[in-house]
């Protein structure tokens, strides 16, 4: 089963949308296997977003993601990466479809509420940045057979 890293970004926490965002993933059917409340420091932010280093928005992105606490979680399910990005919506909320997190709850690209890993390699790298193996729980949910075929 595939795993992905999701972050409720500082704007999501500050706006009181933490539960709303988690709830959308939970109701979709993902199994939560890790979760923590933390503040990202500059070194971690630079590692996470290394692919954007040198771009015009990089400094703004680092100060945004380090500006307050976040909730970081690992979700599990078949095709978790693509499905969770569909639930998140397009990067720029102005293009995100209604019904998606960004399409319902955000307006601007630099305040887009949530992060989700983009592909398998990113997911593995990002999960290892934020979680130790011991912090990820292998468990079976009583409802799994009604959600996973
Ligand atoms: P993603 O979060 O949908 O994977 P990426 O292109 O990987 O999108 O960009 C990472 C994050 O950087 C975005 O979620 C957004 O917060 C921020 N970002 C990306 N492009 C811009 C931009 O042009 N201006 C401001 N912030 C941006
Ligand atoms: Mg990305």
Q: Concise description?
A:
The protein is an alpha+beta fold and 149 residues long. It is built from 8 helices and 4 strands.
Number of domains: 1
CATH topology description:
Alpha-Beta Plaits
Q: Tally the helices: what do you get?
A: 8
From the alpha carbons, calculate the radius of gyration and give it in angstroms: 15 Å
* Strand and helix order: EHHEHHEHHEHH
Derived structural class: alpha+beta
User: Biggest β-sheet: count, sense, barrel?
Assistant: 4 strands, antiparallel
Distance between the termini: 12 Å
Shape: globular
**Assigned CATH architecture:** 2-Layer Sandwich
Helix-residue proportion: 40-55%
Strand coverage percent = 15-25%
CATH C-level category: Alpha Beta
Record the strand order, biggest sheet: 2-3-1-4
**Poorly predicted regions:** none
Mean pLDDT across the residues is: 98
Beta-strand segment tally = 4
CATH homologous superfamily label:
Nucleoside diphosphate kinase-like domain
Q: Which ligands appear in the coordinates?
A: inosine-5'-diphosphate, magnesium ion
Labels describing this entry:
4 strands; single chain; binds magnesium ion; Alpha-Beta Plaits; binds inosine-5'-diphosphate
Report what the structure shows.
The model has no long low-confidence stretch (mean pLDDT 98). This protein has helices at 10-14, 18-28, 42-48, 58-65, 80-88, 101-105, 120-130, 144-147; strands spanning 2-8, 31-38, 70-77, 114-116. A four-stranded antiparallel sheet has the order 2-3-1-4. With 149 residues, the chain is an alpha+beta fold. It binds inosine-5'-diphosphate and magnesium ion. Inosine-5'-diphosphate binds at residues 57, 60-61, 91, 109-110, 112, 115, 118.
